[in-house]
Amino acid sequence: MKPQKKAILISLVVGIVLMLVKFFAYFITQSNAILTDAAESIVNVIASAFALYSIYLSTVPKDQNHPYGHGKVEFFSVFIEGLLIGIAGLVIIFKASYNLIYPEDIRELYQGAFIIIFTGMVNAIVAYYLMQVARKNHSITLEADAKHLYTDAITSVGLFVSLIVIQLTTLYWLDSVISIALGAYISYNAYTLIRKSIGGLMDESNLKLVEDIVLILQEKRTNNWIDIHNLRAQQYGADLHIDCHITLPYYFNLNQVHQEISDLDDLVNAHTERKIEFFIHADPCLPQCCRYCTLKNCEMRQQPFEKVVQWNLENVIKNQKHFIDELF
After folding, report:
1. What residue ranges in the chain does DSSP mark as E strands?
2. What contacts 37, CB < 8 A, 6 or more positions away?
């Protein structure tokens, strides 16, 4: 079994057990704050079940209908998880607001508090495990699930302290206030997940990734690579696709061009943790390129060399050759 599938399966099983434990804590206490935590556990279970399916689908090999693979489903999975968390947060806020006006009796808060802190500790352990597997396998689905469980663990710690305070002060109306605050916190985390998933589905550029690639190219550039521009990155689950234009001497034959493109591909993949699929378009140099071309003893040079143009995020992502004083 693949590590991603094993990790999310563990998360699903643990989530079901903790959900039952939290609802038991609610039944013995009738605390809205504990019900808040229990309701979010339902979301944990549903989200983990969907994540399990999405991870399975994302590992299916490319086919004729999906030439880029099935990795995009991970962004959809994150969207569904964020949506479910958001709905749970809003329901929690409305329920707690109602009980703030029409309070219910609560009891046995000490027992409920210690049950909740136990579930929080378990969630923290599972979240740490999921995050390690997510980073190693570049799974945004596991990363989203891990962050969700971290949120749940933090919520449980806050809930534990709050329940103890309520029991000591007998200010039972704090139960609903705390529940509203936790509902707002949960809703905010839902927003961040939805925002990330929409960005991925809309092929939002990963500027941090592009910047890392540019640093590698700048450090290892060769004289034959006159400039690199129009560099873009797309993520399909754990798979990365990068396309760019490279300016090469116009008199290179096809074999030479192919070799330079292969060298660039090999260079970047040798310095990154995961496999990157490149789509590289070769451009011929223009006379204006001579001004920053570092190729030595070029018999075709038409203008004197002036200075090196440093590759950076600003000039590499533009869809134009580099320049010194003018655009071309």
Report:
1. 227-236, 239-248, 276-284
2. 22, 116, 119, 152, 155, 156, 159, 182
pLDDT tens per residue, range 220-233:
999 999 999 999 88
* Residue 328 domain-assigned (yes or no): no
Number of structural domains found in the chain: 2
- pTM higher than 0.90: no
Q: For the domain that residue 214 is a member of, what is the CATH number?
A: 3.30.70.1350
Given 152, 167, 201, the domain boundary residue is 201
- Residue 236: domain span: 207-316
Residues 24 and 119 grouped into a single domain: yes
- One DSSP character per residue, 264-324 reads HHHHHHHTSSS-EEEEEEEEE--GGGGGT---TT-TT--S---------HHHHSSSS---S
Other Cβ atoms less than 10 A from the Cβ of 257: the count is 17
Please say which residue of 201, 232, 260 terminates a domain: 201
Question: Is the same domain home to 62 and 193?
Answer: yes
The Cα–Cα gap between 53 and 258 comes to 40
* Three-state secondary structure call for residue 206: coil
Contacts of 89 (CB under 8 A, 6+ apart): 40, 183, 184, 185, 186, 187, 190
List, for residues 139-197, the tens digit of each pLDDT value.
777 887 888 788 888 878 878 887 888 888 888 788 778 878 878 887 888 888 788 77
Name the amino acid, one letter, at 73: V
Q: Are residues 132 and 281 in the same domain?
A: no
3-state SS, residue 222? coil
